[in-house]
Amino acid sequence: MHLPDGFLDKNLSTGLGLAAAGVLSYAFNKMHQLVTELGLAPAFAGAGDKVSAIAGKAQRILGGTGKEYLSKLAMVASLVFAAQMFNFPVSAGTSGHLLGGVLAAMLLGPWGGAVALTIVLTIQALFYADGGII
């Protein structure tokens, strides 16, 4: 459900915004761990063990499964965005729509679903004025 700005009390909005920022920070960290793997940077990948002294510690790099997962995340976010464009009025300037969060969480897991819905809701709020920013 999208709520217009000023619909909720400022204290409640602030508390919920801080809670959402904490959960999203954790979700982005989990996503980073999920799509990357430990390895040497691509420039040093073929050099073998001798390069570890030059390259230092192994870094987290985007793996093949990570690329597939990010493609899946983009497709699910696009699907949810398109499906959520069909709104129905609830009351006093609010609107409801498909439960895209449940669909995204089922297809991507809870952390990927949270990231996908964050992208969708940000685009809807900023470019389509569907709900408030706060």
Topology:
Layout: H1 10-35, E1 36-39, H2 52-55, E2 59-62, H3 64-83, E3 88-89, E4 95-96, H4 100-108, H5 110-127
Antiparallel strand pairs: 1-2, 3-4
Helix pairs in contact: 1-5, 3-4, 3-5, 4-5
What does it look like?
The protein contains five helices and four strands, in the order αβαβαββαα. The radius of gyration is 19 Å and the shape is globular. The mean pLDDT is 79. The strands form two sheets. Strands 1-2 form a two-stranded antiparallel ribbon. It has helices at 10-35, 52-55, 64-83, 100-108, 110-127; strands at 36-39, 59-62, 88-89, 95-96. With 134 residues, the chain is mainly alpha-helical.
Q: Radius of gyration, Cα only, in angstroms?
A: 19 Å
| Morphology | globular
Structural class: mainly alpha
Sheet-strand content, in percent, reads: 5-15%
N-to-C SSE series? HEHEHEEHH
Main sheet overview = 2 strands, antiparallel
- Helix amount, in percent? 55-70%
Strand order of the largest sheet: 1-2
Number of helices: 5
Distance between the termini: 14 Å
Number of extended strands? 4
| Poorly predicted spans | none
List keywords for this structure.
134 residues, mainly alpha, two-stranded antiparallel ribbon, globular
What does this entry show, briefly?
The chain has five helices and four strands, in the order H-E-H-E-H-E-E-H-H. By secondary structure, the protein is mostly helical.
